[in-house]
Design brief:
six-stranded mixed sheet, 6 strands, 28% helix, Rhodanese-like domain-containing protein, GlpE_sulfurtransferase, Rhodanese-like_dom, Rhodanese-like_dom_sf
Length: 114
Amino acid sequence: MQFGSVPTVGVDALSAEAFLLDVREDDEWEAGHAEGALHIPMSEFVARYGELTEKAPEGDKVYVLCRVGGRSAQVAQYLVQQGIDAVNVAGGMQAWEAAGRPVSDGKGGTGTVI
């Protein structure tokens, strides 16, 4: 599936080992996120790009998430232009939560998607 010119997959295509990049803002992240995801808000992404290149597994896909898929599509497109194998996750964290995937508040509790 494509979102414009950006490769896009649904939440059901993600394995437990998938490398997730969450580009939502801090308040959204704190309310609830996928455990183990790397968090770099879209508003800070270019300045913090090095954090991604340090943490992303060499040669692996980077699955980009936001709340519904718009911001993540933009970041995924940017990453593809940088030569990174990036994929937008359709429906974002709302689809993640709807699919019954765990949402963490980062404090040991259940989070929520805002």
